[in-house]
Amino acid sequence: MSTPPPSQSQGTRLLGASGFTRLCKGLSVVLIALHIVVHLFPSAITYLALIPARTIPFAWNLVTAGYLEQSVYGVVISTIGLLFIGKLLEPVWGPREFIKFIFLVNFLTSLCIFITAIALYYTTRLEHYLYIPLSGFHGVISGFLVGIKQIIPDLELPFLKIKVKWLPSIALLCSIATSFWTLEATSYLPTVIFGTYMSWIYLRYWQRNPETKLKGDPSEDFAFSTFFPDVFRPVIDPIASIFHRMLCWGRSDASNDAQGYTLGGEPLPGSDPIEASRRRERGARALEERLTAERLAGARSAGVLQTDAIENV
């Protein structure tokens, strides 16, 4: 029997629940600790943040920059996003895939920013692009929004009346709009853009499905054009198909064809809805299991308090 999609009441209860995972708590401690280190020792930013002119030989800043928040607001937003969105994604993906997603999206985002900064320097000859310290976890947070777009796209946020599938687009649009008003927001914008795009590429083409043992999510509901309003999709789809062919170059389509997955790099008719349904079912099961576990924990806690009260009497 197929699992029904998560209901609005399930989503509302889960979003308001406080059962954060251990992995998310541990990563939150890392974000806070690195911010404190930079606050106490400002020179540490030279070694931890992404400064394109210093990336060689300090290549490790392609990794460390993603976990370093330079402002208090950045730490608060990233920590809240990690805890609340992480508890939705980790049960579906599993801890190993969850941490793999964070590492890869963080590294690829930093690498894209480094390449872009070097290209801008050689184009404009402005040394500003080489020496500005860039860092922050917001690239991964943007990637998390893409992740929940994939697994629970039709869940409607309480009070806002906005479906989850539009969150990555809204976050990106807000970042672009804010960059016109504040210089600080401009430094965040490349991280948000590349974090969103690289996470979509990973989930679309590279993430291995544990059930089918195949890579990626070829469903039409997760196509690149779904990040845009319907009116733009006839323009976006032809452009996106170019990148699709580039990313699929060299893939072994024959192995996928044998299992009814793709044909010539394009999804077979009927395979997309099935795969999308399976992903939604896994998301719904994870939501329901987490809600059930939290209800049982609450019941046990209430039982212990009642027993203690009786013994005291």
UniProtKB/TrEMBL annotation:
Q: Name one GO cellular component term.
A: Golgi apparatus
Keyword Membrane present in the record's keywords: the answer is: yes
Q: What GO biological process terms does the UniProt entry carry, in alphabetical order? A: retrograde vesicle-mediated transport, Golgi to endoplasmic reticulum
Which taxonomic lineage does the organism of this UniProt entry have?
Eukaryota, Viridiplantae, Streptophyta, Embryophyta, Tracheophyta
Q: Which organism is it from?
A: Phaseolus vulgaris
Q: Can you tell me where the transmembrane regions are? A: 29-51, 71-89, 101-122, 128-152, 188-206
* Ranges in coiled-coil conformation: none
User: Which top-level group of life is the source organism from?
Assistant: Eukaryota
InterPro entries in UniProt: Rhomboid-like_sf, TMEM115/Pdh1/Rbl19
User: What is the name of this protein?
Assistant: Rhomboid-like protein 19
